[in-house]
Fold:
Amino acid sequence: MKTKKLVMLIVTIAVALFVLIPNLSWAEDGAAIYKTKCAMCHGADAAGKPAAKIPSLVSDEAKKQSDDGLAKAVVETAKHPAGVKSIPADDVKAIVAYIRSLQK
Ligand code: HEC
Structure:
């Protein structure tokens, strides 16, 4: 009986790590890209710069947008520099996940 419990525990931990590790590294990627490509305009806390007409990404409005909507805005916003518009879709996804974490 004891061995069975131990095996169950190990399996549970293994599954938890399997689920958590890719998510953690993903969030870190998004944070790193955000800091290098977005923070200079939208701010490290994503609050934007109203004086420069740069929108907040943590406003109620931004929270209501779908992940796809935010991702589209990254590559389609006319005022975004070419280096932002050309970010690959996977990286945009990671950034959107990071923005969601800032919205909480
Ligand atoms: C050169 C400054 C600049 C950089 C760099 C920049 N943005 Fe923006 N962003 C803007 C401005 C200005 C707008 C508003 C454009 C408009 O009103 O048409 C905007 C709009 C947005 C919007 C739409 C917000 C809304 O409420 O509709 C999102 C989402 C966004 N940016 C995300 C990002 C992300 C993510 C990055 C980094 C990958 C980034 N931006 C990099 C200046 C920047």
